[in-house]
Q: What sequence folds into this?
């Protein structure tokens, strides 16, 4: 749980599966699905924390912002 938000195993696995669809990440030498899953969980926790802080300070985050950040994360994990 992050605050009052719960990240379920199903949600995490769905995000992992979606992130791995392109095949870029798993083609990297030394790829570990478990390590990637931990990285993604850490990222999701960060997103929840940032969203909570933004709400507390009346700052909005668009879906485009989140998508761009997620894409950057996937790109970083694949490089």
A:
């Amino acid at each position: 749980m992050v605050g009052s938000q719960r990240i379920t195993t199903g949600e995490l696995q769905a995000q992992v599966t979606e992130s791995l669809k392109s095949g870029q990440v798993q083609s990297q030498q030394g790829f570990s699905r478990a390590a990637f899953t931990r990285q993604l969980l850490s990222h999701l926790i960060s997103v929840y924390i940032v969203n909570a802080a933004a709400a507390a300070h009346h700052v909005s985050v668009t879906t485009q912002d989140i998508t761009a950040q997620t894409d950057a994360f996937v790109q970083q994990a694949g490089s």
